Amino acid sequence: MNEQNISENISAIPTEIAHRLESSPQDVRSELWDSLSAEEKGEVLPLLHEEIKESFLKRTTVDEITSITDHMQPSDVADVIDLVPAEVGQEIVDCLSEADKKLVEQSLEFADDVVGRWLKHDAITVSRNRTVAQVIKHIRSISLPVYTDKVLLIDSKRHYKGAVTLASILEASDNLLLSELPLVTDINVLNPNTSLTDLAAVFRIKHFISAPVVDSEGVLLGRITGDDAISVLQDEADRQFMNMAGLDEDSDLFAPVLISAKRRAVWLGLNLLTAFLASFVIGQFEAILEQVVALAVLMPIVASMGGVAGSQTLTIVIRGLALKNLHSGNTQSLLKKELGVASINGVIWALAVGVLASFWFSDPMLGVVIGTAILINLITAAYAGLFIPVLLDKLNIDPALSGSVVLTTVTDVVGFLSFLSMGAWLLT
Description:
single chain, mainly alpha, MgtE N-terminal fold, CBS-domain, Tetracycline Repressor, domain 2, 3 domains, three-stranded mixed sheet, two-stranded antiparallel sheet, 5 strands, 66% helix
């Protein structure tokens, strides 16, 4: 990378620099990272995927890390501390101001997958006994935090007492007290132990710009904003997309060859085991396959149709679970719908493939066998595509990570078993 290109990236906004870093091969990425200032690194580092973030931290000195964290939000500093050795983390904390140290330690009290870790401390908070004029003067005296749509009301002990929209304040008379203005009624007060998945669901349904975070004693801890929820939704989408292929959601596009090979080898090995299971089923019908070669020719069609149909149902169900749209109260309704779809498509394609097979091999009975097998496998795929992810979710196993492997095994085994067993019965 030449100096001009580096300069162009330095002048870009942090999100653009982060994107360029993640899109660059290792050598170019290192060169660009080294060209950034400590302040720029502090703005860019929280935007990077975990794996890339960790690789940069490993090659950065302790002094440089403490300099970088001076330009980061407390929650982002806590994330860095999680990724470095304990002694380095302690040095980071020791270099913070007392105010920042308190906020970072508060963030570290929570797991990285709950609201308490990621809340912001920049909400505008005032007493409800303040006048509109006083609040407006206060707002003008500070830098208005982004995603500020409301003012949060607290008492002398920071107990949360409600919220008033900025619009209500600007429209009201100067001498009115905030306690006289209408409170926001549709706001969700979040608990710091709320999971990020539930947080994203709340923001997606309610379309909030921000929401207060209050502990069990009613004390206001901070707020969560819309950009946090969007990041969670994006991360969840990335995770599910990568997990469908058995990959880590934070996998680096330009990760070292050996690391990438190791990750993929695990899932290739698992897939091999399931393939052996399907092969074992086929092996039980070796004699009929030798007698009726057409069965071997048509066999992949049955498994393929079931696999595709099952994947369609699986994808819908995993999305429903992620968005909290699917629960015990509507699972049966979805099952009826998916069985209906499978039955209609099963009959249509069973007839189409059956007729084609009959003409191809001049054997009407062969058409009946493959048509019936397709219908059975599509209905099985609907059941499996729904219940496999639901069961895995109840067992706290990510359905996006292992659901497709289990589903493929089921549709392959059922497809081959039904097709070959009926072939052995009707064609010999």
